Amino acid sequence: MASSYGTDADKSALRAGYLAARQQIPAPFKARMDRSIDETLLDFPLFAEAPLVLSYISYGNEVDTHGIIQGVLESGRRVGVPLVDSATREMAFYEIESLNQVSPGFKGILEPDPDECRLLSMDDFFGSVCLVPGLVFDAQGHRIGYGGGCYDRFLWHYPGDKIALARTMQISSNPLPVESFDVPVDFIVTEGSVWACR
Fold this sequence. Notes:
Belongs to the 5-formyltetrahydrofolate cyclo-ligase family. It is a single chain. By secondary structure, the protein is an alpha/beta fold. The chain has a single domain, classed as Rossmann fold. Helices cover 26% and strands 23% of the residues. It has helices at 11-23, 27-42, 45-48, 66-74, 122-125, 150-155, and strands at residues 52-55, 78-84, 91-96, 102-104, 110-112, 118-119, 129-132, 136-137, 143-144, 161-165, 187-190, 193-196. The strands form three sheets. It has an eight-stranded mixed beta sheet.
């Protein structure tokens, strides 16, 4: 069931509402939804054929990406994960060969070791896909994240396809508030469905 907190709500209210709703999901139900999202993603040719996948490393109640990352690595494809500069909030992606190369970093989120992993450049990104986190998305691909702006700064210059992973309850039936620096995703993968946003 799609949910919405209304078009007149500001981002802070929406963020708080969806954070609270996500925390209420029972663990077994969350695990089933996330497995369904994983299966849908694996059947999506754009993802399945991408030679390089940029992926967030899930934290807390986010859609779980650990199995996705492991599966991509086992398929022989490349994976990049983000490292955030806590001072500037700029985000860079580093290529990992194993989840053993990550450890808690910015806000306790697992991040790559820049001394062990290769920094990916814009040239690497052509033909890649980027899995984008968020709290709520609308039909046009606009999203509300956690308020840091890290992904929007990165996605502004990113040349590949942007894929959101979202449980159906994270899809708003109303348009979300949008600011000039917000970057929409191209596709949203939910339990059993892929939504083309633009």
